[in-house]
């Protein structure tokens, strides 16, 4: 089985957020010395792939890491887990606020360079500003079924089965056709620590960059967005002031006025 893992870093909350601005062509520019790290969902997607390879050594793991600030350090941290290949993914143009554009770019690259990968794994909010739509749009572009909120995977005989929980039940899906799965974090997919010798080797590695291009979609650019107007509330809606205790008292008094005594 060939598995493709898509990763994207997020801002490291241990450091102040770096300045961000727009260029003249409405592209995001990041300044200063920003830091990125893998999100919990990225880590979960990588760990699911690693566990499948642990069980079957012939499993091939290829990784694409979305380009951005601090990419070299992030690539080295992923390289320490020894994927079969690791490349930095450059979107041209990079417009992460446009999920359809991003999905079209990544789908084109997958169809060109990774057509034989039966399973594509990505964090459930990969690269889309927490919107959660890239996985859905990417699956549609690729013509693949989507298993959202995946939590773990395992081999059964010659097939991979993926699991997610729904309420008190577990749902298992057999990967018997090309599939895309968005992964959420779970106690079963907490990313392991890499071996120190692999960490040291990763520090000496160099990485290739691959471009995912697509014609920019016509429509609104980020620079054209404006602050939404404040619309006053009308009707029976009422906002409660004060702290939690004061709000609770006002609500209790109102319920009593409506004849609710318990």
From TrEMBL:
Transmembrane segments: none
N-terminal signal peptide: none
Protein name, entry field: Electron transfer flavoprotein alpha/beta-subunit N-terminal domain-containing protein
UniProt domain Electron transfer flavoprotein alpha/beta-subunit N-terminal: residue ranges: 36-213
Taxonomic lineage: Bacteria, Pseudomonadati, Pseudomonadota, Gammaproteobacteria, Pseudomonadales
Pfam families given in the database record: ETF
Keywords: Electron transport, Transport
Keyword presence, Calcium: no
Gene Ontology MF annotations: electron transfer activity
């Amino acid at each position: 089985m060939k598995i493709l893992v898509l990763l994207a870093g997020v801002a490291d909350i241990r450091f102040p957020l770096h300045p961000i601005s727009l260029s003249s062509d409405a592209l995001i520019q990041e300044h200063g010395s920003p830091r990125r790290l893998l999100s919990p969902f990225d880590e979960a997607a990588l760990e699911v792939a690693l566990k499948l390879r642990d069980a079957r050594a012939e499993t091939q793991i290829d990784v694409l890491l979305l380009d951005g600030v601090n990419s070299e350090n992030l690539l080295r941290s992923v390289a320490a887990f020894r994927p079969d290949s690791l490349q930095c993914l450059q979107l041209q143009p990079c417009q992460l606020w446009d999920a359809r554009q991003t999905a079209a770019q990544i789908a084109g690259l997958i169809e060109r360079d990774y057509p034989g990968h039966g399973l594509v794994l990505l964090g459930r909010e990969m690269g889309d500003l927490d919107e959660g739509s890239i996985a859905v749009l990417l699956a549609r572009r690729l013509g693949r079924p989507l298993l959202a909120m995946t939590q773990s995977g395992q081999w059964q005989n010659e097939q991979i089965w993926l699991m997610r929980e729904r309420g008190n039940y577990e749902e298992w899906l057999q990967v018997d056709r090309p599939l895309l799965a968005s992964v959420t974090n779970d106690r079963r997919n907490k990313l392991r620590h890499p071996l120190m010798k692999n960490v040291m080797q990763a520090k000496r590695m160099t990485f290739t960059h691959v471009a995912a291009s697509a014609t920019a979609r016509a429509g609104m650019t980020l620079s054209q967005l404006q602050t939404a107007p404040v619309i006053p509330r009308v009707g029976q809606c009422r906002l409660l002031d004060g702290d939690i205790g004061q709000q609770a008292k006002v609500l209790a008094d109102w319920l009593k006025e409506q004849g609710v005594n318990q």
